[in-house]
Specification:
Blueprint (H helix, E strand, L loop, with lengths): L5 H10 L5 E6 L2 H15 L5 H4 E5 L5 H8 L9 E6 L6 H12 L5 E7 L6 H6 L4 E5 L4 H14 L3 E2 L1 H11 L3 H14 L5 E2 L1 H8 L7 H9 L3 H13 L4 H23 L4 H7 L4 H11 L4 H20 L4 H13 L1 H8 L1
Parallel strand pairs: 1-4, 1-5, 2-3, 3-4, 6-7
Helix pairs in contact: 1-2, 4-5, 7-8, 7-9, 8-10, 9-10, 11-12, 12-17, 13-15, 13-16, 16-17
Length: about 350
């Protein structure tokens, strides 16, 4: 049976047509916790949760005890909700008993079993023969972009595409960290209806004058002197040169992927999806990709690797390393000279 997405599970919660046993699995723990909280809110009224809600952990409970709780009659309510986290830590006997229960579950109970693993073992697969699976995958960059915008919209505000991309770049891929930053931004922009990049720069700690996206745009247009000026100011304001090199590597990786997909004749919408690029920015990347041949991009990866190694050696001037790197990245003549 195909696993549900978190969104499909939310629809089941809203409809009230719940299955008796669910198996939550995947490596996006933040989304698992959010789904569990929503399940608690929807299934068990707050005034009877002390009697009809049980949160258990596989390392602390036996299979017998889980079944005893799951088969108990609800008190002053129609349903019981039993959540068992870390089911992989159950004893072998406990897992066997759980599989038997899942085959014939109690009608008055919704049982949610949770594993923070994305790779399914035999126990998980046997469980999925009877339980409804809900898979919580790590989000792609494109889906993260959409998730940030959806989260802000749910709270009654808008966030600009540029601010979204900047928040994503500075917060990493952790949904918990991104969510925390969104909370701060909502407070920071309390009197405004929109979160723009200035708000993100002011709160998340990005340089007020320039950020990595100005570097991307400038280098994409092969504006060497402007790129050097932006990077120098970022360095003076405390930005890590290794971070800049990492983000430039990411930029040229995306550019190369776009050029390869364009060569195959794929439409813009499909290229945006395959490269995890928000549709707002794909046309800009197309324009920038015209400025670099595939051979030049591949050569640039060598320059980026060399700069990374030199920066980590700690005995060369960082500003000089970055100046030379940006010159090599934007000048074709350097490549031809070295190939002679």
């Amino acid at each position: 049976m195909t696993a549900l997405t978190p969104q499909s599970f939310e629809k089941e919660l809203k409809s009230g047509k719940l299955k008796r046993v669910y198996f939550f699995y995947g490596d996006e723990y933040f989304l698992i916790e959010r789904a569990l909280n929503h399940a608690i809110e929807k299934i068990i009224p707050e005034n009877v949760r002390d009697f009809n809600l049980d949160l258990l952990y596989g390392e602390d409970v036996s299979g017998d005890r889980i079944i005893q709780i799951a088969t108990a009659i609800p008190m002053m309510a129609q349903k019981r909700l039993v959540i068992v986290k870390n089911i992989d830590r159950l004893s072998a006997e406990g897992k066997t008993l759980l599989l038997k229960y899942a085959a014939r579950p109690a009608s008055q109970t919704t049982l949610i079993l949770v594993s923070n693993h994305s790779d399914l073992k035999k126990f998980h697969k046997d469980l999925l023969k009877h339980a409804v699976g809900v898979q919580f995958k790590s989000l792609t960059e494109r889906r993260l972009f959409q998730w940030i915008q959806e989260e802000v919209q749910k709270r009654g505000k808008r966030i600009t595409p540029r601010a979204t991309q900047l928040l994503l770049a500075r917060s990493g891929r952790s949904l918990q960290e991104i969510s925390n930053e969104i909370d701060k931004l909502l407070q920071f922009t309390k009197e405004k209806s929109e979160i723009d990049e200035t708000a993100v720069e002011g709160l998340v700690g990005v340089s007020k004058a320039f950020n990595i996206f100005e570097v991307w745009d400038s280098i994409g247009e092969k504006k060497f002197m402007r790129t050097v000026a932006i990077v120098r100011q970022m360095l003076e304001l405390g930005e890590s040169p290794i971070y800049i090199v990492t983000m430039l590597t990411s930029y040229f990786t995306k550019l190369l992927r776009i050029k390869m997909l364009q060569a195959k004749g794929l439409p813009a919408k499909e290229i945006a999806a395959k490269t995890h690029t928000p549709p707002y920015f794909i046309e800009k990347y197309f324009r920038q990709a015209k400025n670099y041949s595939e051979a030049k991009i591949v050569a640039n990866f060598r320059y980026l690797l060399a700069a990374d190694q030199n920066l980590k050696s700690h005995y060369q001037n960082q500003r000089l390393i970055m100046d030379f790197l940006l010159y090599h990245l934007t000048h074709e003549r350097t490549i031809r000279t070295q190939q002679r």
